[in-house]
Task: structure prediction
Amino acid sequence: MAARDYGQYSGISRAVELVGERWALLIIRDLLVGPRRYGELASGLARIPTNILAARLKELQAAGVIRRAPRSRVIVYELTPYGRELEPVVLALGAWGFKALGDPRDEQVITPDSMTIDLRTAFRPVVAAQLPPTAYGARLGGAELVIRVNGSALDVTRGGGDVDVAFAAGTGFRRLISGELAPERAIETGVVDVLHGRRELLDRFAETFHLAAA
Amino acid sequence: MAARDYGQYSGISRAVELVGERWALLIIRDLLVGPRRYGELASGLARIPTNILAARLKELQAAGVIRRAPRSRVIVYELTPYGRELEPVVLALGAWGFKALGDPRDEQVITPDSMTIDLRTAFRPVVAAQLPPTAYGARLGGAELVIRVNGSALDVTRGGGDVDVAFAAGTGFRRLISGELAPERAIETGVVDVLHGRRELLDRFAETFHLAAA
DNA sequence: CTGCATCCAGAATGATACTG
DNA sequence: CAGTATCATTCTGGATGCAG
Result:
């Protein structure tokens, strides 16, 4: 039950003892977006068995990475301050893994939380600071997000709202961000579908969010 | 055998599919220090079962993270360029885990490679750049290292050589680096044992290598 | 209904023995 | 030295049960 240890005295081995079990980093990823209820975690991590989710939540609590917090009648899980220190690690790991992503397969889901973190990994604050504030509406798989960029600040929320440009992208999302496909080409080929708004803002999106493939 | 996938289309899930299996990140950690033979990896990761090591090496090759390279009669494993891009991830994770380290337990080993990476995570190049070049000899558990700091450059090698100060530290190593114990106190209490050289250089060591506990 | 606990088949790991 | 083969143990995944 407790994470088996590696018998080594080192930072890495301690870290993987704490958060290296299967599913653990994905739980942490979703909690980086915000506190979540048990059921919210379960539906965000569609294929996690419920007993494994319960076990991981206990282990991560014991490790001091997350905690149960009562919020007006319901219980949510949230990162502790120490857990939140994993943010740079998760973002760096996500950036690395993003480069190895191919096109999404049919059985793969995109959740709002995972997409939010992926957007954070690809976000270029220095570039964004030079551009006017913009709100994008993005529909990707099952996730529908409003992405607000204001200076070097990024804010991603779920659901609708007023946006400057709204688009739907399946396989195109990664290609846009990797620079593999220019925005105009993406629209032409139908890989990205602009639903409404100023379609030229897709260029700005591609500038703001960029992660070159390896 | 192949890494089971999480059914999600995201950077993190892809990353943990590639390097999230048990022992994988420790193998990568040691390969970050330099190319290693099968037997070197096996002895650095004392408790890894040999079949698991063999399996991981194959999976990591298939993932494009490492490769087998023939070096004058023998075969070594080394990181691919893509694998080397994990360096910031491993260092960040190591820094996080280091903060959760307690005192070393008896059954825990310290290997030269793991210690080398831990020193890299704690190294402060900006601080080091202000200090004169210094060579430290450190004996920690089974690992005996020569640590050369020259400006903002750090070089850690195994074995002996001329150093400005040599010291042995058991539990003291972490406490020194975390700032939990001042160098003078460490020497007084016998937690750190200066073998020869200028003992006041331990202050410089503690300035150069620092990682505050959480 | 949410938040888990229990049960069981199958997969991964760990220990050890063995081979080219 | 560099792995492969075998087998006991542990963990995961999927289904289901159940208490607040």
About this structure: Chain A has a mean pLDDT of 94. Chain A touches chain B through 55 residues (CB under 8 Å). Residues 104-208 of chain A form a domain with the Nonspecific Lipid-transfer Protein; Chain A fold (CATH 3.30.1050.10).
